[in-house]
Amino acid sequence: MILGVTGSRQRNSEENYVQFCNVLRELLKENNDLLDYVVTGGCAQGADNFALRAAKKYGMPIKIYFPALPLVGSAKYLFVQAYHARNEQIANEATHMIAMPQNKNDWLGGTGHTMNCFIKYHEEGNLIIV
Questions:
Q1: What tens digit of pLDDT does each residue of 84-110 get?
Q2: Quick one: residue 3, left, alpha or beta (phi over 0 = left, psi -120 to 50 = alpha)?
Q3: Residue 21 sits in a domain of what CATH number?
Q4: Which of 91, 98, 100, 129 could tie 7 with a disulfide, CB 3.0–4.6 Å?
Q5: Is 0.85 surpassed by the pTM of this model?
């Protein structure tokens, strides 16, 4: 299993981290602890940070994909393209995904984009929305 992690920066509380770890442990249990690695986007807040913390805590390998950002002052659409390309890379590589949008009906922004990409690549893939 390759676990993708995505989420809103607003979901950044310790309570959110506990929720993430509970879902992670359940997912690992369901998959007989067979985890190749975790893949995420490296944001310092929210689910990306939870993935990094959990990887350290549980000794899981992790890959972090940072966006290939354009030069400062470039057009906004170039930044959006860079983040979308990174999201696609995570969604395509993952076989399972834990997503922590701002709320369960929020499929907007980068988190929503990553969730939609995951569904595009893995119609029957395991998307868990926390």
A1: 999 999 999 999 999 999 887 778 789
A2: beta
A3: 3.40.50.450
A4: 100
A5: yes
